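STRUCTURE:
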């Protein structure tokens, strides 16, 4: 169960009429890209959405994204659905085809947002990325979500989560997000062990209860 919910945190998205906006969602990042695409569409933008996932089973919100987009492009890493490739492949195609792009918004894995930002930097296209570093208190007090933006420390929970993708130090972001990987892995293994032990205990209890009921009959 959920004990508490705190929000909204950070700064609101800068929603206005840019012209043509490309919204890129990678994996579960599509869940956050969807309301952004809808808001940009509502502000009068031409919205081109690009959704990427590892395989067909992991493609989410296709219907919803299509409803708020003038065009929807889908890629899967393994080619099990739509076009095989990455979201940057579709973005590159749009640029090469001469599509005027006034804004790119990317939400998803760090490596994807970095690749998108590197691509648009060369084309001088304004790019916004939504960062998801480790957060603890959500008020800027702990410093867990500290990111380097244009060489200066900022906090994703109060200054973000959206930043200029061309100013983000993605190398530092990757390092900070993997600081606790070993501890996270151990915690996951312990959780799985406890879940397995509980399941085995429940199975024994169920079997014992069934045997007793049989004896009573």
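SEQUENCE:
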């Amino acid at each position: 169960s959920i004990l508490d919910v705190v929000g909204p945190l950070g700064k609101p998205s800068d929603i206005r009429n840019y012209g043509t906006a490309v919204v890129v969602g990678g994996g579960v990042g599509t869940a956050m890209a969807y309301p952004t695409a809808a808001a940009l569409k509502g502000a009068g933008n031409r919205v081109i959405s690009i959704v990427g996932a590892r395989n067909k089973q992991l493609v989410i919100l296709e219907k919803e994204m299509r409803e708020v987009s003038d065009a929807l492009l889908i890629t899967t890493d393994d080619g099990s659905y739509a076009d095989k490739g990455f979201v940057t492949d579709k973005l590159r195609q749009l640029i090469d085809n001469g599509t005027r792009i006034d804004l790119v918004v990317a939400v998803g894995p760090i490596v994807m947002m970095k690749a998108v930002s590197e691509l648009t930097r060369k084309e001088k296209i304004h790019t916004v990325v939504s960062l998801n570093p480790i957060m603890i208190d959500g008020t800027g007090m702990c410093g867990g979500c500290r990111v380097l933006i244009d060489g200066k420390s900022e906090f994703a929970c109060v200054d973000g989560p959206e930043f200029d993708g061309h100013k983000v130090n993605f190398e530092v972001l990757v390092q900070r997000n993997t600081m606790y990987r070993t501890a996270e892995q151990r915690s996951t293994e312990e959780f799985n062990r406890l879940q397995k032990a509980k399941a085995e205990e429940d199975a024994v209890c169920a079997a014992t209860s069934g045997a007793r009921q049989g004896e009573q009959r």
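REMARK: Residues 183-217 form one domain.
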